[in-house]
Design brief:
By secondary structure, this protein is of the alpha/beta class. It is built from six helices and five strands, in the order E-E-H-H-H-E-H-E-H-E-H. It has a single domain, classed as Nucleotidyltransferase, domain 5, CATH 3.30.420. Helix 5 links the parallel strand 4 and strand 5. The two termini are 28 Å apart.
Amino acid sequence: MHLLYVDESGNPDGAEDKYFVLGGVAVFEREVYWINEQVNTIAAKYFPHAEIEFHTQAIASHREEPWHSSPTEQRNQVIDELCNTISSRHVTLFGIALEKATASDPIARAFEEICNRCDLFLRRLHARGDTQRGLIIFDESRYENSLQTLLAKYRSLGTRYGSTVKNFADVPFFANSKATRPLQLAALVAYAVS
């Protein structure tokens, strides 16, 4: 099974952001352990006595601890090492940057885009003989019920592109990003896309 970890960037409701972004990291289920190990090694290197969540927006803005008291060089090194983790593992990145003025519901539109693209990715794998299904895992969000309903709609009625999504094993699941390192890498992708 391929797990697509997704995080968002930008406020879909507020005027302060022109874009709403979804960033995703798709990994084969057996890769998750190794990604966790690699990111945990980075955490132990820089913060050996603390539980640390790598949220790229917080690292870059350095307004909150432990990033506020971390030197710029160290913060940049942490981001570089997280990028190296992505590039050294077998992952597929997804990024949707949606200009909010072009959609009445930016969340639904961005979600439709990422579902469609991930389904296409899984169809291509299937055509090569890799018949894995996908599962989307989001950072906890107030949009849980609406996104689960939307995926059911895309499965039965299709997307605006005319095709139904067929390769997801279940509805999207939601997890706390502090508990899963691949969601923290998805936040890095969302930050980079935005």
